[in-house]
Amino acid sequence: MSTAVKTLAELQVPFAMRGGGHMPIGTSNNINSTGVLISSSNMKQLQIGPDHKTVTVGSGNVWLDVYKYLEPYGQTVVGGRLGPIGVPGFLLGGGMSFFSNQYGFGSANVAKYTCVLGSGEIVEATANNMYADLFWALRGGGNSFALVASFDLKTYSAPVVSVGSVVYGPGVRDKWLDAVYTFAHDGSKDAKAALIPTATWGQSTQGMLVYNNFQFYDGNHTNPPAFENFSAPVLPALQNTVSARTMYQWTLEDYDRIKAVHGMRNAFYTVSLYAKKEAMEIVHDTWFETAKLRLSNVTNFLGSMALMPITERFISAGGRDPMGIDASQAPYIWVEESLMWSNPADDKTIDTFLADVNKDINAKLDAKGLRAPYLYLNDAYQGQQVFERYPKVNLAIMKGIRAKYDPQRVLTDLMPGGWKVEHASIL
């Protein structure tokens, strides 16, 4: 990796860096024929520390690899909720995990980054060494500072977790939104509980708006009190795969489902809300009503919206980072809009829909003071102002760190993919 970066910089050849390739923005982990693609897919190092308190993870791994390796040790890490997600992009963007209510962002649980700078120099950044400023910037600051060859991650005991998918079907909007709201304020006080509540509409749902959750509990407890509003008699399930197993076993179930949609076109968009019932209703109703009007003829369209509760403990558990989210205003709801379709001819329709519907949503939220400032980098769409929504002082510091470690702007100009701190305006 070091030789490649040094050579490309000397020759002024554009390049892209791909870890797991999960982000569905073409330029984020790919480049056209004018440049070179560097893939970390063979950097599969996995080595648990002698005290089992950390594990070194090469940047070519996906989270399924990591959970499989740690399973015999009864350990886990604060990693991705889905198996095929790559390690480096997840961690450099912050990283939401099933374990985040206990331990914070995935990035808050990195003990060391082994990095390649834009000059090709290899450095190790920790919270307490001479590269502590670089360490801070990498905790949610993206790819402007260095390429990361490996991460030393903190490990935690988790021999058994209870996790699975719960499907409710159509016609439960009110009860489902009530349950998500209640979990955000009350149920998530049990830090071992985590939830991805999702509403879905499209051709594969026969035009019905259906609801489901991914439910997680750290331990052998398949129906803890935290989820009482997501089960009978309040909200009876049509299907429930929640069971006690390992994280690796869960990612195998999840991987089969994700593999079925490989090859589809995909887009994300993110919105942040204060956890108010009215805000959730605005986002849910505006998005799906507009989608039904404008996307019914998009080939093989499937659209989903995850309303993810984010707690004060989630935000504060990891300490200082560039994202600078105000924990005192929690809980939040972070919305991930996820769209899939098959025909490239529909790309412009999707792009226009996302711009228009979110302009409408944000205007409605702003009118009532319900929109929160932070945008989660890993769920953002091209053109969203991610770093402009970080605290101004943090963005200024990030710009200084970028200039210190990459004065020639190799990772900004020659590697254009992703969000760049240098391109962000301090508003």
UniProtKB/TrEMBL annotation:
Pfam families given in the database record: FAD_binding_4
Keyword annotations for this protein, in alphabetical order, are: FAD, Flavoprotein, Oxidoreductase
Q: Which GO terms describe its molecular function?
A: FAD binding; oxidoreductase activity
Report the transmembrane regions from the record.
none
Gene3D superfamilies named among the record's database cross-references? 3.30.465.10
- Family label: Belongs to the oxygen-dependent FAD-linked oxidoreductase family.
- Please identify the protein, giving its name as recorded: Putative fad binding domain protein
Q: Which organism is it from?
A: Botryosphaeria parva (strain UCR-NP2)
